[in-house]
Amino acid sequence: MTYTTKGHLEVEDRGEVLIVRVDGGPHSLFGIDIANQLEELVDRVDRDPGIRAVVFTGTRPGRFVSHADVRWLQEEGAAVPPFGRRGASAIARVARGADRARALEPVMRKTPLWGAVQLDRLHATFLRMNASGVIFVAALNGSALGLGAEFAWACDLRVMADGDFFIGQPEVLLGINPGGGGTQRLTRLIGTHRSLVAILEGKPFTPAQALANGAVDEVVAPGDVVTRAAELAEYFGARPREAVAAVKRSVYFGGSMSLSEGLHVERTEFLGTDQSDDGQQLMLDYLESTDSTGELPLYNPDIYKQALESGRVPGTRSTNGQ
Questions:
Q1: Cα–chain-centroid distance for residue 29?
Q2: Which residues contact 61 (CB under 8 A, 6 or more apart)?
Q3: pLDDT tens-digit profile of 191-224?
Q4: What pTM was estimated for this model as a whole?
């Protein structure tokens, strides 16, 4: 194995929000080092109740993350004997089981399955981001293709720099299929047909096209990308963390199931938040405020505005500044 590209994450701690700059080397590539450090970062923020949001951006001007390190993909693919779709499916399932048994890692590293294990591990990291009570924001300071785009799709919100930049899935032009979740997450963002056409053609979106299609949430001046992303991170991160996690799991996972299955996911998450300390206290405050004022708090425009800004409906005590 001659794969040698290194990369690292530069973490800036701003209290409840982390600004994480992705340094993928001279070409801003996403390789195994970035994948491993991202896994460690997600572990860290999930364990730390003081962290509410994470903003990712690139270190190189004009690039968020260029794409995956092609040498990484090529060498891992070449290490596995040719097989059909059934064989690929079997290997993917074996890799998932092997990855869950971390004690087997030293053995797996010496087998052709290691590349599949790495891919499964990256998918697991992205899925943990989707299930987390932490808000993840991609501050696209420039272009992103392939795995760079898939990294952005795995975040909860995306702010993109305006200018001569692009984002998309060009894998078909290299004779491969997106492997980091592009066919699934982009489809859920912009719809089946638009996603199919974009991925089949391999042509990326301009910032304006990405915004119009719903692939990014905002397009701002290049110098404002991180600032705006941090503002969104603080705004959405202010909501009760347990409720954020429940909403994300319901939407990301329940939203792709049948209606009855999705409703089961929602019920499960609702029952959890309904019994939580935050949920109980906020509902009691709401009832107390209703009783004391004679009006439902969310029908008072000023209180609703306060709730949106603070991330929670103020009760009588907090409304009075106590």
A1: 18
A2: 141, 142
A3: 999 999 999 999 999 999 999 999 999 999 999 9
A4: 0.87
